[in-house]
TrEMBL record, chains A, B:
Residues 219-400 form the Dyp-type peroxidase C-terminal domain. Residues 47-207 form the Dyp-type peroxidase N-terminal domain. This is Deferrochelatase. Belongs to the DyP-type peroxidase family. Its cofactor is heme b. The gene is efeB. It comes from Nocardia callitridis.
Length: 414, 414
């Protein structure tokens, strides 16, 4: 199937496009319903933490890589992989890591997650454009030739107010768990072990997932008070997941087969003007009823929006309503898998709360999915009056791991 | 009982000192074990959120008060009280607040906690020294004569690195809940309604409570990886709670009878040097085993520390060990009720995680409990090499509410 062909076919003829591509991998990661205290498989065809039913808490960290040698970077990725497998399996016990290495060494684990179990922890790695080629064009790790076209830096969108310190990164790790201490513990220990080779460029804590990624979950609310993610791709729709989330390896770098792309956008909500808007205005902007989550004109949350229905003046669902502009109907079939989290970070210095949405999306090609979607939203979305994009990053998320693989082994394979 | 008498008597002769002082109040707030999805009584002898079994999540906000009129401040406190009672009761439904006020008004509730239930939410208010008298000595609200002596600003302690933007405040609200979205929702809505009269001076999110306040709870771990709060006062020890937490009204302002004092300290942990310390050093600094939490020389977490036991050179529990310096044995019987939370706030700009402990303590007189304790710790604690106090505040926490009371009604009573 050509790169051009897969968009716009809306699920027709692409059934199981990703299946069987990556031989020898046992199962789709995270396809089963979440057990909140349970563990998700670390190895599999795809990395866990993408279609895995969204856990309640997030700790996301973007890193700058300081080491200049390919061997040292690979060595760190191998070490991280072993740690990640141990932590996602909940194998922090008093018998190892935290206190098991003897009195006269620094403990190999910091210990604050002792006894908390796996808590549904997933750790997902991604590689940023700058890992392949620095801003000066340097190919530090002899991987520039493997840089995917889809991994280009995102263009500037209308209204962007990005902060450099909140954007980019050579690589990123997404930790999701049902217990924030478990997510924080994981990122902290990976950062700790990377000391001298990598440093935290920016990081983000999130709570109250704003998108459900499984039909087994109810739709959570974002900090605008609206249900968010009703029409999100669900893990159970494998046809759509294969069409819109997983790279199939024919229209991308071979090492990315079974992988995906992660787009992160830190979206500050201007909650004070929002909170002073009437319910009518809020529902017009979103295009849904605030209480039930039903599309305007519908009665149940999962009713399909009727974009053609007429209202008193113009369409019932406004031309600039968020639900319309972000819809597959509007975007020639484009869909993305959203996995965002709410955040709150104290005061903004003007007596208001600094809060919003840390938007995470997974897609097969950000240039052909996220970029046209965000262009449409950035130009026209009625919601723009109430939000501001302050951070942005894109990462190539390699496929899942076979029994002998480490994070990035397909990228660094000879 | 004289003000001088109650310290040093260590539980003798002060049984039920606080009981019966505040007539007509139904019950001790939060004395029962927590039901994680349940509601705690909003009204009672004492405010909930103090001895209430510590919930998992915190959103704490300190406010500057901008209104200059006593009537307007009282009106806001009345409004807040009604909102707080509604929110702690989980009474946000689609029938009121979020969508029940009609289409052409801003909703009276922002809606993101719809359907989440009470989630154990408690809201606890406190009044700062500057509410009584401004830095210029102005008695804005005709309450200067009622300022408790115990509410003096805290002295500067050795090693303090306080940031003004993270310290002080005219009043504070502590929101604790088992769901962070519920805690954030509460603070957000209180701040929203206070717009123009108050503004958020600073706020703090916390997770993974670091102190258990009930014998029904297991002891959580702080971000040093150690169990924190083993020797904390527990709600079930009513004798000690009455001795060390509740103001009895004879040795303080009458309006504070049944109240307490809240001391907040934002303590940044220097986790990188800590993580590079040997297990032996970490355990020497704390005075406990990292795995079990047992005091050095003991075998179980709740064994009493033997401060007299001899080690290979000097005492087995170091002279500067945290557990010794903070102990009632060392401090002539002083105890406080700790109710702290872990925090993590992204990168510190040097590639390290900005993380630590948001310390909250409740005590009957901060000048006679927290201040001498912190003086001792600030001078000698071996832990000082690994921590830095960056924020500080103290608040007078009024008593619980009778059926007709509002937050602060005893303070503003004629």
């Amino acid at each position: 199937m050509s790169r051009r062909g897969w968009l716009g076919t809306a699920g027709v003829g692409v059934v199981a496009a990703g299946a069987g591509v990556v031989a020898g991998r046992a199962s789709r990661s995270g396809g089963s319903a979440s057990e909140s205290a349970g563990a998700f498989a670390f190895r599999g065809e795809h990395q866990a933490g993408i279609v895995t039913p969204a856990q309640d808490r997030l700790h996301f960290a973007a890193f700058d890589v300081h080491t200049e040698t390919r061997a040292e970077l690979i060595e760190l990725l191998r070490t991280w992989t072993a740690m990640a497998e141990r932590m996602t399996g909940g194998q922090e016990t008093t018998e190892n890591g935290a206190v098991g290495d003897g009195q006269y060494k620094p403990p190999s684990d910091t210990g604050e997650a002792l006894d908390l179990g796996p808590s549904g922890l997933t750790l997902t790695i991604g590689f940023g454009p700058s890992l392949f080629t620095t801003a000066e064009g340097v190919d530090r790790f002899a991987i520039a030739a493997r840089k995917p076209a889809a991994l280009a830096d995102l263009p500037k969108f209308s209204g962007d107010a990005l902060e450099a310190a909140r954007s980019g990164g050579d690589l990123a790790i997404q930790a999701c768990a049902d217990d924030p201490q478990v997510a924080v513990h994981a990122i902290r220990n990976l950062a700790r072990v990377g000391f001298g080779k990598v440093s935290v460029r920016w990081s983000q804590l999130g709570f109250g997932r704003t998108s459900s990624t499984s039909t087994s979950q109810t739709t959570p609310r974002n900090l605008l008070g609206f249900k968010d993610g009703t029409r999100n791709i669900k893990a159970e729709d494998e046809t759509e997941v294969d069409r819109s989330v997983w790279v199939d390896g024919h229209d991308d770098q071979a090492w990315m087969a079974g992988g995906s792309y992660l787009v992160a956008r830190k979206i500050r909500m201007l909650i004070e003007p929002w909170d002073r808007a009437t319910l009518h205005e809020q529902e017009r902007v979103i295009g849904r009823a605030k209480g039930s989550g039903a599309p305007l004109g519908g009665s149940e949350e999962f009713d399909e929006p009727d974009f053609a229905a007429a209202g008193a003046s113009g369409p019932l669902i406004d031309r600039d309503a968020h639900v319309r502009l972000a819809s597959a109907e509007e975007l020639n079939g484009i869909q993305i898998l959203r996995r965002g989290y709410n955040f709150t970070e104290g005061s903004d210095g003007f007596g208001h709360l600094d809060a919003g949405l840390f938007f995470i999306a997974y897609c097969r090609d950000p240039q052909r999915q996220f970029v046209p979607m965000q262009r449409n939203l950035a130009r026209n979305d009625a919601l723009n009056e109430y939000i501001k994009h302050v951070g942005s990053a894109v990462f190539a998320v390699p496929p899942g791991l076979g029994p002998e693989d480490y994070w990035g082994s397909s990228l660094f394979a000879p």
